[in-house]
Amino acid sequence: KLFFTDYGNAAKVERCDMDGMNRTWIVDSKIEQPTALALDLINKYVYWLDIYLESVEVVDYQGRRRQTITKGRQIRHLCGLAAFENYLYTVNSDNLSILRMNRFNGTDVQALARVDNAKEIRVYQKRPQAAVRSHACEADPHGMPGGCSHICLLSSSYKARTCRCRTGFILGSDGRSCK
């Protein structure tokens, strides 16, 4: 799945399949300017910053079990968001520091380091990633991902895929080759 925020005409947090299909709003009320998003892949939670409402909130992947993690004026200066273990990490654009806070209740806020100019944050861990099961976009015997000549996007499950073409090309009638 792909998760993203939108604060155009109607602010929302959404998800869709990697090919853009099955677009679903998971948060569309009591939300104004969601500017950063982080996922807890293990427990299937979506965290976001709303700088207008000055809050950090969380829901599950279906938009249920919504909770406010923290609220207050300090939120308006935050940008970027990452979840790792028991903490959320973000960047304070006002004093250019990396902040860590408890992701369950917003307590234990600590400035970890100062940065020159950052608007985003990511956490990478050293532990090996879990093995990925075989999927529809694996390379075929000719080295083409999912048998697609350009781009393979997973669809509604790891067994389904959609082929797409790079800019300037169109998908052939076979649904795999680009011309």
From TrEMBL:
PANTHER family: EGF-LIKE DOMAIN-CONTAINING PROTEIN (PTHR46513:SF33), VITELLOGENIN RECEPTOR-LIKE PROTEIN-RELATED-RELATED (PTHR46513). This is LRP1B protein. GO terms for cellular component: plasma membrane. It holds the Pfam family Ldl_recept_b. GO terms for biological process: canonical Wnt signaling pathway. LDL-receptor class B repeats lie at residues 1-43. GO terms for molecular function: Wnt receptor activity; Wnt-protein binding. SUPFAM superfamilies: EGF/Laminin, YWTD domain. Signal peptide: none annotated.
